[in-house]
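To: structure subgroup
Subject: Chain for Friday's discussion

All,

I'm putting the inputs and outputs inline so they're searchable in the archive.
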Amino acid sequence: MTTKFLRTLSSVASSAEINKKYEVWRRTQEAVTKLNTLQSNAQTLEKIRKQGGKRSEQNVPNMIKFAERVGISLDDVDKLSIIHVSGTKGKGSTCAFCESILRHQGYKTGFFSSPHLVEVRERFRIDGIPISREKFTNYFWDVLGKLEKTKKSAEDPMPAYFAFLTVMSLHVFLKEKVDVAIMEVGIGGQYDSTNLVRKPVVCGVSSLGLDHTSILGETIDKIAWHKAGIFKPGVPAFTSLQQEAALNVLQNRAKEIGCPLTIVPSLPMLDSNGDDITLGISGTMQRHNAALAVQLCKVWTDSRQKDQSQQEAPSEDDNNHQFILNHTEVKTLPTAVTEGLRQCRWDGRDQRIHKTGVSYYLDGAHTLESVQQCIEWFKTSSAEESKQISGRVIRILLFNSTGDREANVLIEPLVDCGFDAAVFCPNILFSTSNTVACTPKKDATNLTVTKESQLNRVLANMLLFERLAVKKLQQQKHEKESTQTDTSCSAAKKSKLDNDSLENGDNSQHTVCMIEDSVITKDFPCISSALTWATQGREPNTSLQSFTEVPSKLRNAEHIQILVTGSIHLVGGVIGLIGSE
């Protein structure tokens, strides 16, 4: 009788727990759905682009008003001990290293990042862990409720998506009473929503490159101007090694603003004792990001401990290219710092997920420099893995690019990687029939681009890859002319190429067949169908659809290696489907 009662009680408890979890999930979905209404639609964004970003100058003043409507004054923001980081490549990794280093030193950390990979709550991390769904929901409705109560009297009723999340991050960090708040800039710096911060402890600028050019400008010096916008008078600033044009702008802006700027060289492989300095994030560029993080954390901890020695700002006669060691002893790092570097994790950047019969190589590279680094990492890592596999291994590229990025700059170096197939799809998780369905993952909803424009971009990317593959093959076989006609070439692929002129106007069937000889290409309307085809059904978490169209040369492989790159949102979509190790 007692056993039966206990079983019944256990069943009731389990049922109550399930109901509670479902209720949390339901409320989270409602919150994310409401949050998505703050996204600017594609038409609105296009109008803003045509205006040349004239409204950007009002971003920070508006942010101050939004924060005040939530009950957060600038004095409240000043109470947060903030590390503020901008940059084009590696700013997220730099922030992740900072968070891990300071957490391993015993501090309670807050980390605001963007974009998220799978769930919006990833953007708010306390002690390295995304806030729970329950906390996310409570904080969200708290902030939204205060904004909605005051919107009738406000000139600008509600903040846009990222501006709202920035205000929410301040609310979260104040409520959670973090020791340090690490803030990653969204886009640019000067007019970024995070730049309402007026008294950070220290600022950092990671490696710069061409990105978001329609907003920040088409040259590296214009982009550097925006990135340096986070500098504040008297606040120490650090930068990774930069191109000369970018560095000149950073130094000039630092002088104008009145802040000391120091250039940080790459982190050495060994410390002064000859021990390895191991990083938890793969990739050669990470040593630059890690070095920057070490410097930022050293300044922050010195400030926190109230025992920082007074440092003179570098004079005009100082060589700013030299590493200034009195901010930190890089060669003799404390154990907590080296552990923070070693155990740091930042998904979607040089990340490998291994499963039975398939390995995913994930990197959200979307600039030329980051793609080149991604290729270097993929070639090395995939080759090492292949040595451990006795059977045949095939390599497949899964690619997408978005925004104003020049796809040819990203795709051309990928053509030389020797992929057996290249797959292209939009950053859409699922599709039904030939139309894109509403995804059950509300966090992945993107209203800033239309479905049609995404699919058109996918086709353009594939055709570009094919054209570059043909060009490469022609260069390799320029002394040989084929006279045979392969009647097995797909009519569909030939039709696509007929509508897109090839090099020197050569649209012959011979040229179409050269693509088949070079690399197989395929486009899909969503990530799920692309993964089903690429993995040949080995991925259990994607839709179970037929993959009979897989060419014979790809079948019966012992292992499949898939490089996912070109877009961090694509990487996030893949992780959302396959799960993360």
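Points worth raising on Friday:
Residues 307-329, 433-439, 482-489, 500-512 have pLDDT under 50 and may be disordered.
Residues 2-36 form the longest helix (35 residues).

D.
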